[in-house]
TrEMBL record:
It comes from the Bacteria. The keyword Membrane does not apply. GO terms for biological process: L-arginine biosynthetic process via ornithine. SUPFAM superfamilies: L-aspartase-like. This is Argininosuccinate lyase. Keywords: Amino-acid biosynthesis, Arginine biosynthesis, Cytoplasm, Lyase. It catalyses: 2-(N(omega)-L-arginino)succinate = fumarate + L-arginine. InterPro entries: Arg_succ_lyase_C, Argininosuccinate_lyase, Fumarase/histidase_N, Fumarate_lyase_CS, Fumarate_lyase_fam, Fumarate_lyase_N, L-Aspartase-like. It is an enzyme of class 4 (lyase). Residues 368-436 form the Argininosuccinate lyase C-terminal domain. One of its GO terms (molecular function) is argininosuccinate lyase activity.
Length: 467
């Protein structure tokens, strides 16, 4: 048995907490990360209590000054975190009482750690969402500008990872950008449900003091007080929503990463990544490895893990607060850190991608990527699509044996398969002709890509205005 540890409930207990149990149940080693938000919430709570006459103005000022000093101690690394004091909330409150005496003990009037921790974590998530949004926006901007610059750059488009039809590199980048635009909307939507105030729910049923939750909500910048006290202390939907946003975003980043890894390989040779985003090998002197995209791809797994962890944490929990909820923090912290760092890495790296245009062009020229264009050409000359498909299939088979792309065959060679083919066929068999012909909204034509980039810039600007 340990020495008497935590005094805040000592009155009811006849023996001190077991030393191992004290360590096992403590969260201060990780929840000290919430200190800034804990102090912010306490200052708002004390301000509200004074406003409704539960504290005097002198008591409020003593509390606010004490908490402000504690904030400084924490920032300077002078604060002595104590595991026997269990969590960030009781550490700060105990220090406040050390500093200002009996008034410090009045701070917890009309409040419980249950509504306090729920408030802290929402304040924390709101701050982190705003930081993540900045990185996401920076990445989208970089991607849109690169797409605009590469609107004319031709590369093969793939289905089944087999060469399918030529596309422009700008079009490919804007496909990535669309994924991120949806992630951005999801993030801002999640923020709305984060931004609700639990404080005032107290332990679970509310409090007998004449509190004004609208005042606290306004002081903390929350949209409104949570509607139901039982739900307020036990709701962790916002944590699950955030990690589900994070999981989908990481899935997208892993897809982009996979392509970057493939494209930097000698086999594809589509792009170069500047040396600062790569590392070498300790044994193979020739190696330059795309570590950043590889790591982002790898880190996707831990974020999915946190989503499953949080869903399972909340499964079957009876109302209202349960100690289980203390387990929400580490997965959330790690999800936040991982997503922020991966976005930062991508936002730095994407504008620095150097396309190897000749190599992309050559790859698009191989693999009969304009076969569909030849079929469409025949259809325009009155051939039924299924017959056109057959004619082109025979031309490709001939190309495979004679090792010629469609555009490299002579008119006579092409006419073996259909006499309808004329000299103008070569306009559609070129890669430039092929991409330029897909000239409608959502298509790969360079003009469409430039217009799409402009719309993406505008959509990004409008979305930002919504916070
Ligand atoms: N450390 C706790 C948590 O993170 C704070 C709330 C504790 N409440 C309680 N009644 N034991 O959830």
């Amino acid at each position: 048995m340990s020495q008497a540890t935590n005094q805040s409930w000592g009155g009811r207990f006849s023996e001190p907490t077991d030393a191992f149990v004290a360590r096992f149940t403590a969260s201060v080693t990780f929840d000290q990360r919430l200190a800034r938000q804990d102090i912010q919430g306490s200052i708002a709570h004390a301000t509200m209590l004074a406003r409704v006459g539960v504290l005097t103005d002198e008591e409020r000022d003593a509390i606010i000054n004490g908490l402000t000093e504690i904030q400084g101690e924490i920032e300077r690394g002078e604060f002595n975190w104590s595991v026997p004091l269990e969590d960030v909330h009781m550490n700060i409150e105990a220090r406040l009482t050390d500093k200002i005496g009996i008034t410090g003990k009045k701070l917890h009037t009309g409040r419980s750690r249950n509504d306090q921790v729920a408030t802290d974590i929402r304040l924390f998530m709101r701050d982190e969402i705003d930081v993540i949004e900045v990185e996401l926006k920076r990445l989208r901007e970089g991607m849109i500008e690169l797409a605009d610059r590469e609107a004319d750059t031709i590369m093969p488009g793939f289905t089944h990872l087999q060469t399918a039809q030529p596309v422009t590199f700008g079009h490919h980048l804007l496909a990535w950008q669309e994924m991120l635009a949806r992630d951005h909307e999801r993030l801002l939507d999640c923020r709305k449900r984060v931004n609700v105030l639990p404080l005032g729910a107290a332990a679970l049923a509310g409090t007998t003091y004449p509190i004004d939750r609208h005042v606290t909500a306004e002081l903390l910048g929350f949209e409104r007080p949570a509607e139901n006290s039982l739900d307020a202390v036990s709701d962790r939907d916002f944590a699950i929503e955030f990690t589900s946003f994070a999981s989908i975003l990481m899935m997208h980043l892993s897809r982009m990463s996979e392509e970057l890894v493939l494209w930097t390989s000698a086999q594809f040779d589509f792009i170069d990544l500047p040396d600062r985003f790569c590392t070498g090998s300790s044994i193979m002197p020739q190696k330059k490895n795309p570590d950043v995209p590889e790591l982002v791809r790898g880190k996707t797994g831990r974020v999915y893990g946190h989503l499953m962890g949080l869903l399972t944490l909340m499964k079957s929990q009876p109302l209202a607060y349960n100690k289980d909820n203390q387990e929400d923090k580490e997965p959330l912290f790690d999800a936040v850190d991982t997503v922020r760092d991966c976005l930062k890495a991508f936002a730095d790296m994407v504008p620095a991608i150097e396309p190897k245009k000749d190599s992309m062009y050559e790859a698009a020229r191989r693999g009969f990527s304009t076969a569909t264009d030849l079929a469409d050409y025949l259809v325009r000359k009155g051939v039924a699509f299924r017959d056109a498909h057959e004619i082109v299939g025979q031309s490709v088979a001939y190309g495979l044996t004679s090792k010629k792309d469609l555009s490299e065959m002579s008119l006579e060679e092409l006419q073996q398969f259909s006499t309808i083919i004329e000299q103008d066929v070569f306009d559609v068999l070129t890669l430039e002709g092929s991409v330029a012909a897909r000239n409608h909204i959502g298509g790969t034509a360079p003009d469409q890509v430039r217009a799409a980039a402009q719309r993406a810039r505008e959509a990004l600007a409008t979305l930002q205005g919504q916070v």
